[in-house]
Amino acid sequence: xxxxxxxxxxxxxxxxxxxxxxxxxxxxxxxxxxxxxxxxxxxxxxxxxxxxxxxxxxxxxxxxxxxxxxxxxxxxxxxxxxxxxxxxxxxxxxxxxxxxxxxxxxxxxxxxxxxxxxxxxxx
Length: 123
Known about the structure:
Arc Repressor Mutant, subunit A, 2 domains, 6 helices, 3 strands, about 70% helix, about 10% strand
């Protein structure tokens, strides 16, 4: 996926689309008025910009995503690890858990993910 950078407001807008897609542009205007207190021109301006970035598409008044929420946030997470921790996932995890305890359940889930990746490497 090509890196798509969004500001906080654009990200909130994208979250509205992801949560409601496919959504008619008129309905999107109403959602943005309610959620973001935006007027119609603001909604259409941000929509146009996110379409230009390749995140969303507006096909005859129906707005949907070209990049899923999961793909976007996964790429964003990878970029944070790359930029802040020189690509070191262990350094990122160490920094993360140094400020927040993880539960036994979370540790088991992480262990399970690692075990699944290792099993995949053995195949």
